[in-house]
Amino acid sequence: MNILKLSWKNITAKPLVALLSLILLALGVGLISFLLLLNQQTTEKFERNQGGVDLVLGAKGSPLQLILSSIYHIDNPNGNIPLKSVKPFMNPKHPLIKKAIPLALGDSYQTYRIVGTNHDYLDVYEGEIANGRLWDGDFEVVIGAKVAEMTGLKFGDTFHSAHGLGEAISHHDEHDFRVAGILQKSNTVLDQLILTDIRNVWLSHASHDEEGHSHDIIEEEQDITSLLVFYKNKTDLRTLNFPRGINKNTDMLAANPAYETARLFEMMGIAERALRFLAFAIVFVSALSVFISLYKSLKDRRYELAIMRVMGSSRSKLFGLITLEGVLLALVGGLLGILLAHVSMSVLARYMQDAYQYSFTGWQFLPAELYLIIGALVIGFLAAIIPAIQASNTDAATMLK
Fold it and tell me: Is 146 helix (H, G, I), strand (E, B) or coil?
């Protein structure tokens, strides 16, 4: 019997002891792997969806909520602001602002948000039309690739919007939105949005009063949800003081996406560090469990080891036999942990899909996971060194007496 088969047979001879070591190691490695997967995909999506926006103007309230709702579309807005309040910032001759894109939120279709904006919004994420064309007339929309996939909407189809983001509150029955185009998949927030002219959002809300009479849209009297601002020169001293002036001298809130996103990750980082500490503690306990199980088994196997020495096995072979047992336990436990992490991430991905329409995957494998497996093997080897040294020092003559 070769040394690998013998090591595996020794492990399976006491399945409950081996199972405890495997579970502990799998939990520790799995938790670390899960945190790596979550952090990697979350960071990628936040960086990609920020789109180079330098500042967001919106209603007073939480700056983080303003950023989440206006850039990442995963929260409710603080409220609305009058269009006339931000008109000066949309002037092409503004000394500090290169471009400003208005957004009007509040409606949805099957939980996918309808965003009133202009064609410049597509340029932020380099959106391209896959089928049809950009919206042009009243109640025409362009839908993201994911919206088309999940709702079944096609070019030329019509649908009713619903008031409210996520879960519908009420339906607008006065007008049908018509799909004028479908976007190519971009792996950005565009994939999960329904885009239309901002005037169409106003029309859907103000087209009729309580008595059923129609209203004309007077642009200056309308509200928007937020304004995405892009600076001409980010290092200009006036640019650095611009948000402070908005917050101090107006009824609007100016929020910096980079700062608020960093603050969000810092808050998340506290929980992540706590979980990572717990994971390393579990891995340490699992290493201790491997050491104890191998150390205790030596008492029951000394006669067996003495027989192996008499049969010609060298000290190095006995050393290798015990260390291989520790390495095999660590390898199986590490692989089970990686599998557990990816299954858990798949479960979370379905929740994120249902709650926020964000696409995560449990089957993205990271190079860092290979280092996790190598680390697990090193832990198994170190845990087995002392028992292996004792096994290699077995005195066959003394034992057989």
Answer: helix
DSSP letter string over 160-197? --EESSSS--EE--S--EEEEEEEPP-SSGGGGEEEEE
Helix/strand/coil percentages in the chain, nearest 5: 60, 15, 25
What's 140's DSSP letter?
A: E
Contacts of 142 (CB under 8 A, 6+ apart): 122, 129, 132, 134, 135, 179, 180, 181, 182, 183, 194, 195, 196
DSSP H helical ranges for 51-166: 63-67, 83-86, 120-124, 145-151
In the predicted structure, residue 214 carries a pLDDT above the cut 50:
no
Strand partners, 208: 214
User: Distance between alpha carbon 79 and the CA centroid of its chain, in Å?
Assistant: 26
| Residue whose C-alpha is closest to residue 144's, from 70, 75, 73, 194 | 194
Tens digits of residue pLDDT in 129-187 = 999 999 998 899 999 999 999 999 999 999 988 887 765 555 655 678 999 999 999 99
Distance separating alpha carbons of residues 13 and 21, to the nearest angstrom: 14
* 338-385 pLDDT, tens digit each: 999 999 999 998 888 777 777 888 888 999 999 999 999 999 999 888
Token pair of 12 as six digits: 């399976």
CB 77 within 8 A of CB 70: yes
pTM of the model: 0.81
User: What are the pLDDT digits (tens) for 255-282?
Assistant: 999 999 999 888 888 888 888 889 989 9
> For residue 11, what are its two tokens?
């492990």
Nearest to 196 by CA among 134, 153, 240, 146: 134
User: Can you tell me whether residue 255 is helix, strand or coil?
Assistant: strand
The answer to whether 122 touches 115, Cβ cutoff 8 Å, is: no
